[in-house]
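Run log, item B.
One chain of 418 residues. Sequence copied directly from the ordering sheet:
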Amino acid sequence: MASLGLVGIIFIQFLGLVLPNYLVLAQWNTDTGMEQAKGVATGTGGPDVKVFNVLDFGAKADGTTPNAINFIRAFKEACNHPGKAMMVIPEGEFVLGSALFSGPCSNVAPLMVSFSGTLLPQPNTKTAEDADWLTFQSIDGLIVSGKGTVNGQGEKTWKPECENCPRAPASLKFIKVNNTIISGINSVNAKGFHFMISVSDNIWFDGVNISAPADSPNTDGIHMSKSNKIKITNCRIGTGDDCVSIIHGSTNITVENVVCGPGHGISVGSLGHYDSEADVFGITVKNCTLRNTDNGARIKSYKNNNPSRAAGITFENLVMDHVKNPIIIDQEYGQVGSSESSKVSIEDVHFTNIKGTSVSKVAVDLLCSSANPCKGVTLTDIDLKFEGTEKPAVPFSSNCTNVKVVYAGIQNPPPCPP
């Protein structure tokens, strides 16, 4: 009995030491963390937050000195701190080579990063194969907030698009990162993707600004795969590829109040590119504006033998401003000459209350697979006007291939023949 009593006392002491931190971890989530992110942006985390300023770890804000190791040391100290921790990147220009900020962390979540400076890539260095520029990995509970800028200086390295070329490094990559807020920061001229998300859960991008020229190759704004519950709100994205690209294994994704342009639109896909792709479902794009983009609301898949399913996709309350292909499903993406049909099944897709101007005479172009015709596609209250330069003899119209569409409300252009 005495030994049991001792064990009980030790267990109670263990709970007293461990549970407070555990409860904080369990209670913090992105839904309640946005107000906290505003404080992080100004370096205000509260009196009980320990600050880890990169300058205190030897970083130089002079625009020339390499600082990757100094940033990693500051991050590691914050990550391993037993209480609340904030890494601070103050104003100034910091040069960094490729850097990995990896957990798991033992701090009281969330780990806070107050970001005010400008990050520049280290010149004349090669990243390891498949490495991206700045990577956050294996972290549960993270806030990156501020008016700082990640400048990839891609204009120094961009080359014309080519097949089988290696992917250029993403500026910011989040892999195995959960319960995260990215707020207010800027990404300029990424070499490749601006933001890349993979194998992650519950990430909220809010008020993020992304910019690159319309002709910059493969500079997707926010690119995601194999991730759940990604929310993108109040962002401005102008780039040379998809403003948002949602590929295999992406589930429960919300894109809301985003201004996109220039770029290739907001895209589900490309799908069917890899073997054994996980399905895509629960995608909502709403209250967005697309300006001078090459596509608007788009779903795209390759013509090959890789089967998967994309379902539960809603595009609603969108404004198109001089957009090419405002509404498009393209299951022959990138392989017009191929004799194969896409094995991706596209189901339960809704285009609702989409208005504005098209520079394409075919404003609604639904090109589905002959092997897997699209199912459950609806168009409700589509009101688009042609304001392009194509020949006036060509009618303003819709195209529907391997799909039966259910229509309701206004339809401009006219619906496909039954």
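Observations after the first pass:
- Residues 154 and 372 are 39 Å apart (CA to CA).
- The first strand starts at residue 49 and ends at 53.
Flagged for discussion on Thursday.
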